[in-house]
Design brief:
It is a single chain. By secondary structure, this protein is mainly alpha-helical. It has a domain of 60 residues. It is rod-shaped. α1 packs antiparallel against α2.
């Protein structure tokens, strides 16, 4: 795929599907409460299930690229940079060598 992330594509996809199952149940209940019709609620929930799985998958992959808030990236950024060694003193240009 065109996005490289430290998670496997299958993991991102399964996370998207499991999240959508939960989200679709929520959408179905809310749609039924608002419309009072099972057919409308089921139609709304089934359509949004597929569109939001795709949206979540790409959203998850994009966030996986960002180091923001990731413990493995925060630790690396917090490590002190190696100290630069001072350059040896030059004996030219008026410096006196002992």
């Amino acid at each position: 795929m065109f996005l490289r992330a430290p998670e496997a594509h299958s993991r991102s996809f399964l996370k998207a599907v499991s999240w959508r199952i939960l989200g679709s149940i929520d959408t179905f209940v809310i749609s039924y409460f608002v419309t009072g019709r099972l057919v409308f609620a089921a139609s709304i929930a089934s359509v949004e299930t597929f569109t939001k799985i795709i949206l979540f998958y790409f959203h998850e992959r994009a966030w996986a690229l960002s180091p923001f808030g990731r413990a493995d990236k925060v630790v690396a950024a917090a490590e002190p940079a190696p100290e630069a060694k001072p350059a040896p003193a030059s004996t030219s240009e008026g410096a006196v060598a002992h």
